[in-house]
Amino acid sequence: MAFYRKNIGGLHQMVRIALGVAVAIAAVVYLAGSTAWLVALGGAGFALTGLVGYCPMCAISGIGRGGVS
């Protein structure tokens, strides 16, 4: 049982996953030190919202499937 309702669609999920993974990999390859890990963590979080199908910021701003903003 999920405690949330998905608020992003299939294409949006795929784009989030692809961009999140790309940012995480690019951060580790091109940046150094703690900055690389912070940016990679942000990219991983972005990808995670795509995997789960729920974005808290989209929910706060009223963006989502089947809702009225």
List keywords for this structure.
mainly alpha, single chain, 69 residues, 3 helices, elongated
One letter per element, helices H and strands E, the order comes to HHH
The overall strand count is 0
Quickly count the helices: 3
What is the rounded Rg? 14 Å
C-alpha termini separation: 26 Å
Average pLDDT figure: 88
Largest sheet: none
- Percent of sequence in beta strands: under 5%
Summarize the structure in words.
With 69 residues, the protein is mostly helical. It has one domain. The chain is elongated. It is built from three helices and no strands. Helix 1 runs antiparallel to helix 2. It is 68% helix and 0% strand.
Give me a quick take on this structure:
The protein has 69 residues and is mainly alpha-helical. It is built from three helices and no strands. The protein has one domain.
Helices, strands, pairings?
Blueprint lengths: L9 H21 L2 H20 L3 H6 L8
Helix pairs in contact: 1-2
